[in-house]
Prior knowledge:
The protein is an alpha+beta fold. It is built from 18 helices and 14 strands. It starts with a helix and ends in a 38-residue tail after the last helix.
Amino acid sequence: MFQYRHVLVRMRQGDSDRDIARSRLMGRRKANELRAAAVERGWLDPGSELPDDTAIAAALGQARRAKSTISSAEPHRTVIERWASQGVQGVAIHAALKREHGYTGSYSSVYRMLVAIAATRPPEATVRLYFGPAEAAQVDFGSGPELVDPASGTPKRTWCFVMTLCHSRHQYVEFVWDQTVATWLGCHRRAFEWFGAVPGRLIIDNPKCAITRACARDPLVQRAYAECAEGYGFKIDPCPPADPAKKGIVEAGVKYVKGNFLPTRSFRDLADLNAQARTWVMEEAGRRVHGTTRERPLEQFAVERALMKALPPIAPDLGTWCRVTLHRDCHVQHERIYYSAPFTLVGKRLWLRATDNAVTIYEDYRLVATHPRGRKPGQRFTVRDHLPPDAQAFFARDRNWCVKQAGVIGPACTELIEQLLTDRIVERLRAAQSVLHLGERYGATRLEAACARALNHASPQYRTVKHILARGFDQQPQLVPAESPTAYAAGTRFTRDALSLFTPKTKPH
């Protein structure tokens, strides 16, 4: 009210309303109202004392006319207050009033009532959090620029990973293509290497790559991220759900990157983007005077780094965990690559851990399979011992095995197996395996004799060898084919009698 007292002083000195308006202290209409109130109360008399601010405010308040209009939204105040307390937006409230309550007023009436309702609520108080050196860092993702994805050749949005030390405000900034668990863990590793040390705890939001179940009191941490925290020695401190103000330092850091780094630059690809980001952090962001701390981040970081935890001598082997099912073919699928596991676990849910170089499969805590990490979709990594016994036997007895086993039995068996395997029309691997399997029942000597008899009669087939052994013909004198007639005999169809193949050769008396 000091300006009103100043105007009263000038009125006592004889200044007109026009003079007061010309000096821009008060408009002519307002000055006229003040003069009328002052004359009525005797404030312009030279011998009277100037009124205090309370008296002036009371006089001006009495002079105002009370509004006589009633808002068209007033009958619905209770409903509007309830929806406003639930966080419903004004446009949605206006539409709901028209749809459900037959409201015919304008949106402006609803908006004015919402403003009046908000004014009656007590303002929310907050407290700024302060962190000591090396105590904590905050982590967050923000949207980045669109770049051409080298894999697909089409524009794709990037994501900005930011880790900010809460005390010094020094940052690590990296742009990535996705927010997967592997990317999240890799960004942490490179951030710690960038700082050369590890903070005591990390304050994060609730991304799915870190927290599998968000909860204010009992959050469930992703298994791979828990291993990362254990390996580097930091604690995970998730914010309560829907409360990003708890990590306001990194929220401001992300806005600073998006508002001061991205708008004035162009980038060829992701590598160029990250190279420019690192240069910007060290030469501009790290050397500026921070708006909150009024210190330069790099200068404060020089003090903070000495108090942070040292990096482990050997970097932890960070891996991602996921649940997989062992299918009927004794393989699990991860990123469209197939890895085998013991056939006794078919149909069960297993744990798969994938690192940069290896894939391990667990049944609960028991290790059941280890494979090298595949790189191309469609690859299959199979350990023969993981297959059922019949499958193991089938794959073990390949062509090379058949030839090798036949060589042990004898030359006749070797020749018969080679004829089976070199058939140009039919694949006879199973027949060769079955012939060799007969040796387990009848012995190598009899099998060699049976193969020689089958070759002698130009019938290198599994059923022939089996028939010879079953009937004991391999233990009889060697058979010779009967001589073919020089001409077709009367009533005969073939030049050789099939029964003569097994006719013993006898000497004439």
